[in-house]
Amino acid sequence: MDMNAAVSTSAPFLPTSGTSMVTSTFSSVDYVIFVLLLALSLAIGLYHAFRGWGRHTIGQLLMADRKMGCFPVALSLLATFQSAVALLGVPSEIYRFGTQYWFLGCSYFLGLLIPAHIFIPVFYRLHLTSAYEYLELRFNKAVRVCGTVTFILQMVIYMGIVLYAPSLALNAVTGFDLWLSVLTLGIVCAVYTALGGLKAVIWTDVFQTLVMFLGQLAVIIVGSAKVGGLGHVWEVASQHGRISGIELDPDPFMRHTFWTLAFGGVFMMLSLYGVNQAQVQRYLSSRTEKAAVLSCYAVFPCQQVTLCMGCLIGLVMFTYYQEYPMSTQQTQAAPDQFVLYFVMDVLKGLPGLPGLFIACLFSGSLSTISSAFNSLATVTMEDLIRPWFPEYSEAWATRLSKIIAFGYGLLCLGMAYISSQMGPVLQAAFSIFGMVGGPLLGLFCLGMFFPCANPPGAIVGLVAGLIMAFWIGIGSIVSSMGSSVASSPSNGSSFSLPSNLTAVTMTTLMPLTTLSKPTGLLRLYSLSYMWYSAHNSTTVIVVGLIVSLLTGGMRGRTLNPRTIYPVLPKLLALLPLSWQKQLPCKSYSQDLPTDTAVFSEKTSNGILWGSGDKKEEDRSSHKGSSPTFTLQETSL
Predict the structure, then answer these.
(1) Does residue 607 share a domain with residue 470?
(2) C-alpha–C-alpha distance, residues 281 and 554, integer Å
(3) What is the pLDDT of residues 205-228, one digit of tens each?
(4) What is the pTM of this model?
(5) How far apart are CA 111 and CA 263, in angstroms?
(6) Could you tell me the residue range of the domain that residue 586 belongs to?
(7) How far is CA 427 from the centre of its chain?
(8) CA-CA-CA-CA dihedral for 157, 158, 163, 167, to nearest 10
(9) Number of domains making up the chain
(10) Which of the listed residues 538, 561, 584 is the one where a domain comes to its end?
(11) Are 318 and 92 in contact (CB under 8 A)?
(12) In this structure, what are the phi and psi dihedrals at residue 417, rounded to the nearest 5 degrees?
């Protein structure tokens, strides 16, 4: 999901496929465990595919019939952005730089609380299928298409890398055949995602999450036992400066401080858990809004446990290699491979455990890739096909959705091959995911929190945010290539590549630390990657508001009040009643026309909501929030 790893330029992020750095091989038991992971994942998908074969609807395929419970949705939310790159990257980050990264956990509170109480209620009450339907309800169809295309480009590039990178790392360390693992994982994932739909993806995520926990736990238990226990691990890490204190320097150009992690991380979390289609789709598959909110709450402790386990593996690995130093071959490897070397070293002689960790590693990839396939099929179907061909039958739409999902699976394999040919540019490709998440977050916030924002402002703001994101991101890459890298202190920075937990938006290149502070544009390029989402989303909002005001705001346009979250009235409601009575804004009004029929028109295709649902929606439209709040805030 959101774990990052630092990668020094002294070693490439991943070696070439022809590398000869192989230290260990699998036993037959390890292969059996790995094959079992694939077989069980495929079996779960096929079970849901053949259960009710011939009676599947598009709603069942894309939204699991909107009947999922809190527990499976919560674990699926966790697994979606907990990729194999994170499982490799977080321990490497702790091993090299210390526990400062752990303070990212402080961002999880607001990063999950805000989606639970702002984004989920708005999306759920609009009965959406695609998050980008919101953009049409709030703005117009052009904004919806812009958001959809941006998301598709983001995920297509990312999912190929998520499949290729761990396969290549595994090949380098264990000799596991590179393209056999790429093809096997890609095809297995595409089959169960295309045939089983979202329900199959969610339940395989549950299984794969448990495998990830077991794999990490096995490494912690065995590794700490071999070095004398967790107490000794903590003592050695403290002696060598790997237990970091709170760095309160407010400088946004420092790679990791408390503020960049705890507050910059909030925006990163919002781009993942607030507006990303893969997560929104899971919220909307819940049987009730309350279940969706509870599933978001449940992610918080799970994320904390996952982060702590990654940190512990990093500390145990550091202690182990203090007592049993790495070989020359290992020290020359990319830092993200350290964990695999450590696992093969510490678990050797224990048949099955190396296979369990590799199963854990590829569970992370499967969960991320399957979520990408399903969410891409959903937005392609709902945002790009059905609006133009609404007359097609339910059976036709269901078949086409399966074909689209499988097609994205094949495209993923193609992207994995392209990644293998990119060489050093692979690092730049990783950063693209992070460059896009912030502007998309800004686009949704612009529409949801600012009633005066209009379609021209939304489009210009999104374009400005993307330009700014790519300018800083690519500028950071180029400036880093021509600079020397200083030695890496425990809390220092080097030319780094944060790897996604998912993540996700965190996969952007981090600025490098040089002997002298950069100035001018180079200073801008050294902005901490943890602030990228905040910076880029703010750019979208500011530019979008300016353009909206210059083009007349929402005058003459209809505004659906259900697409607005009344931020200011909610904040004013926290004041004492006597103070509220003195506020002049309570009597303000606005002449903006509102169109409460927009939603009814949207659901007229009957794709997911029957007449009973429409009646319930009509009843709910007469209770709850009144448009008054929206109008008051607009006038302010």
Answers:
(1) no
(2) 29
(3) 999 999 999 999 999 999 999 998
(4) 0.82
(5) 9
(6) 569-635
(7) 18
(8) 100
(9) 2
(10) 538
(11) no
(12) -65, -45
